[in-house]
Amino acid sequence: MAVKFGFWSEQETLVGQSYARRLHELVEEAVFAEKMGFDIVSLSEQHVALGGISSSAPEVVYGYLAAVTSRIRLRPAVSLMPKKINHALRTAERAAVTDILSNGRMELYCGRANTTIAMRAFNVEPAETLSQMEEGIALIREAFSKDIFTFNGEHYQVPPRMLVPKPLQKPYPLMGIAATSERSHVWAAHQGLAVLSHTLYQGWEAQAKMVEAYRSAWRRDPNGPLDRPRLGMPVFLGIAETDQAAKDIYAEPLMHYARISTDAYPRLAKIADDYAYMGEGLEALQRAATDWDYLLNDSASLVCGSPDTVIRQLERFIDAGAEEILFHIDSVSHAEIMKAIELVGRYVIPHFNDRNNVVRPTDEILEQIRMMRKTGPSA
């Protein structure tokens, strides 16, 4: 099976630049990603974020992208499921309409929220985010798949109603979750959902454990769209013509992003039992924020270098079980993002998806021809 590649953005806007201009740049990047052979465009949902991350309404962007793209699939990374941020039925309605307008290209990946800034702004109780996500997903699946549905849960009580309109894809669009704990991987597997798997910089051993937990626990939902496990991995990307150029451009932005992320996780671990796992492995989190060699080689979270180097590094993610790679290309200028999309589309995607169409050195081909002459029937 060919590996799927995605472009993942949080619409990060650099200091001194315009949020409005950045949004138009994001659209240009998504359209260009489709042209360069990417399979998925994936937008984060972040609210009242400090600094440059500004993807507050990805559902609006998807409606726009549905009109200016024709092939690339549209996937939130992720739709936030706390009830006070997004009522599950509103999430279902938006996804269904986008699926229709995009002619069946919408996917729906959900998550529980991972910033206290957003949770406090919307008066979300951290101890309820996990149960609201799981119940919300169950409600969406009922609304998608049944003509008349009803729902009676802890957080949602819906009398007999009809979702209007229903999604174009049947039985409904691909659904999954972002999972960073073993528990979430197992829960998604039991539900027959897809997974976007990340270990919070804990490394390859932890990643292997998550993959095994998901694959071994997966059960097909006879009423769902998946007939087998679907596992993707988010990968932070730095790419340029040479290894040194990639490091010069991307090392500091990638480490800065790791510092921001790792600073949030220990705080989240203290506010609710469901987030307690984020406090485990603090040494690895700290190393990811301060040690470039660890971040690049051992954290199972990023690739950085020339196209050849990136290809070699990606082999490890694919060997670890990734069927989809979502490249996080952000934290640098629009020009660098466009260059990264081009390099991935020109060199990386063809290498994995159509190697027979990748130009190889003439000497290498001639050597293979000579060997076949020596061993073939006409030798």
Q: What's the domain count?
A: 1
Work out the helicity level.
40-55%
**What is the name of the CATH topology?**
TIM Barrel
- Content-based structural category: alpha/beta
Distance between the termini: 35 Å
Mean pLDDT equals 94
Instruction: Please state the CA-atom Rg, rounded to the nearest Å.
Output: 21 Å
Descriptive account of the structure:
By secondary structure, the chain is of the alpha/beta class. The protein has a single domain (4-375), classed as Luciferase-like domain (TIM Barrel, Alpha-Beta Barrel). It has helices at residues 19-35, 58-68, 88-101, 116-121, 129-145, 182-191, 204-217, 243-271, 282-290, 292-297, 307-319, 334-353, 362-375; strands spanning 4-9, 40-43, 73-76, 79-80, 108-111, 149-152, 157-161, 175-179, 194-197, 231-239, 302-305, 324-328. The strands form two sheets. Strands 1, 2, 3, 4, 5, 8, 9, 10, 11 and 12 form a ten-stranded parallel sheet that branches. It has a two-stranded antiparallel sheet with strand order 6-7. Helix 2 (58-68) runs parallel beside helix 3, helix 6 runs parallel beside helix 7 (204-217) and helix 8 runs antiparallel to helix 9. Residues 4-323 form the Luciferase-like domain. It comes from Tistrella mobilis (strain KA081020-065). InterPro entries: Bact_Lucif_Oxidored, Luciferase-like_dom, Luciferase-like_sf.
